[in-house]
Design a protein that fits this description.
The chain has 10 helices and no strands. By secondary structure, it is mainly alpha-helical.
């Protein structure tokens, strides 16, 4: 799908892109630190998963702050592929929820993470049709309305679109891969939660 309007994009990274890149770096540093602590106390945690998560984090930084090749639409597509597909798959492949559960000491924070991971809200978000609608529906709105052309002149909106791509891509990757213990509520399937 090619948009009806040329997209020159913002002149450079705006505040939203800086925030996205900063969050990616902080989360990546936190995950690598947690993995290092696990290995330091004698627990096994594959270094390949560290590299996978780090690659996802660096991909987000590059896609939001880096100089990309090609015309403006090609740059947009590259950003979309990295932020909406590649980086989320790398993050999910590194099993961050499992890492957090192993790294947290028994106590309230760990119990809260388990409760959140198995909550009805997470089960609903990870219901495959809903995750697909949030991911693909956002793209439909972006390319089938004036939203794409508008982002050329509104840096904050452009950054919010990038954040949306990343978050919905992450959600969809969690649904497809199912590597972490999330969304498996003891109270029933996501369909049961939706019916209540």
């Amino acid at each position: 799908m090619t948009p009806a309007h040329p997209h020159s994009g913002p002149a450079g990274p705006g505040p939203a892109e800086l925030v996205i890149a900063g969050v990616a770096l902080l989360v990546t540093a936190a995950c690598l630190t947690a993995a290092g602590r696990l290995r330091g106390r004698g627990d096994a945690w594959p270094r390949a998963w560290d590299a996978t998560f780090a690659a996802g984090g660096l991909g987000v930084v590059w896609a939001t702050l880096g100089h990309l090749w090609g015309d403006p639409f090609t740059q947009h597509v590259v950003r979309h592929l990295v932020l909406g597909m590649t980086a989320p798959l790398l993050f999910v492949a590194a099993r961050p929820v499992t890492l957090a559960l192993h790294a947290l000491a028994p106590g309230r924070p760990r119990r809260r993470l388990v409760a959140l991971a198995h909550s009805g809200a997470v089960a609903v978000l990870l219901f495959p049709p809903l995750a697909a609608v949030l991911d693909v529906g956002g793209l439909w709105l972006l390319y089938r309305t004036e939203l794409f052309a508008t982002t050329a002149h509104r840096p904050l909106l452009h950054g919010l679109i990038l954040a949306h791509m990343t978050l919905t891509g992450l959600l969809f990757a969690l649904v497809v891969c199912r590597l972490d213990p999330v969304g498996r509520s003891a109270r029933g399937s996501p369909v049961d939660v939706l019916r209540r």
